[in-house]
Amino acid sequence: MIDSLSIFLGGENRITLPFLAYPPLFISPAIPLAALIIIPNAKLPTIAKQILSIPLLLALVLIPFGFTNGNRVIDLIAGVLNYNLFLRFLELYWVGPLVQDRAAYATVESLWIDFWGCMRTFPQPAKEDTKDLKKGEVKVYKKDQKFYHIILKLLGSIMVTDIVGSYMNTFTGTELAQIYVDRPAFFLVVFFFATIILNSAFNSLGYSIQLFYCLAFEGGSYSSEQWRPLMINPVISSSLDNLWSYRWHQLFKSTWLAFPFRPVRILTDRLLTKKVKNSKSISFIMASIAVFVASALMHEFVIAANMGWPIYSRFYMGEQVIFFVGHGLGAMVENVIKMSVVKKLPKSFTESVWCRILQHIWVIAFGYLSFIYIMKGFMTWGFHHDTPLTFTRPWFNELIRSNPALLSYVGGNVPF
């Protein structure tokens, strides 16, 4: 019994499954959860749905700890997906009914929008009269692009991911931690490259998803106004708020708005509304910090599942919390400074190029100093070594081998 349960410690204890068997396993709890939630409560009451959901929700959490494909990129996707499926269904079955006193029910359309809403805007009836729409009218988006426009963007993102990935593949987490201490200027260069590859890798995923949607559901054409890239060059962010609210990927925005943002905001407001004057502002701040905590726990979850609980708890536990909660607090401090200091400064400065430069320096410095906390666990685990894009890797390794002077600017993972 103890040996059989040890697989749920994660890491090397897990059962390795072939590729074709792995994806159906890690999404299998989500299918009945989705099927149950769309059943009208007149046919199946909330309490019955909640009871049936318990083992399925537990399965979502345990599967990444118990099973692996052997490919670390696929394991990363599985862990992230299951974590967010758990949060979304936990809100639908339990948090929403308990906090907002609503039934455990969702329409197929709402689940569809939840899934695609990270990239695609779904038109909703206008709540009031505007310049372009009257109340109740729905905006019609003009299709101005074809599927091959997506292909060009996808190929560009793949090319950048492959080239920069060949460089990042030479490093391990241990090496980068040492470079952070011994060669801080060089670590800044690596930090920029890491940001570039994250931008291109996420956009490769985003354009792939958009291409599928365009071909499968939009007849090969789409409205550019209706879609956004997953990542919008985070390296040029002007504030931490701009980084996380706009430029960073919004893959889980609908999930994290549903839980934890709205429940935390509602509960905090209920608790403080009769005790303090600015309860709504405080509840918004607490809800925003809760989203950063949710993101931190997602990253902690993935590292724990893939490195194994003993190694994770000894060496890496809490690093993701430091990174994400730190950024949440940094964004909060930014807003306080904007309201208390910046608005008192002359517009000749706040709207100048020097102010914008200072803003960019602040974001880069904050990201640079905190990057070690999010990077070390993932890079030590080595997920970046299993990327499927390896077209330029042999050429890049040969370039390094032929030019020994370049060795001091790469990591030690270059085969000779």
UniProtKB/TrEMBL annotation:
Entry's InterPro entries?
Wax_synthase, Wax_synthase_dom
Tell whether Metal-binding is among the UniProt keywords: no
Q: Which UniProt keywords apply?
A: Membrane, Transferase, Transmembrane, Transmembrane helix
Q: Where is this protein found?
A: Membrane
Q: Does the keyword Zinc apply?
A: no
Pathway(s) this gene product operates in, as recorded in its UniProt entry? Secondary metabolite biosynthesis
One Pfam annotation reads MBOAT_2
- Segments spanning the bilayer are 20-39, 51-67, 73-95, 147-165, 185-202, 284-309, 321-341, 353-375
Record's superkingdom? Eukaryota
- How is this protein named in the record? Wax synthase domain-containing protein
Species assigned in the record? Mucor flavus
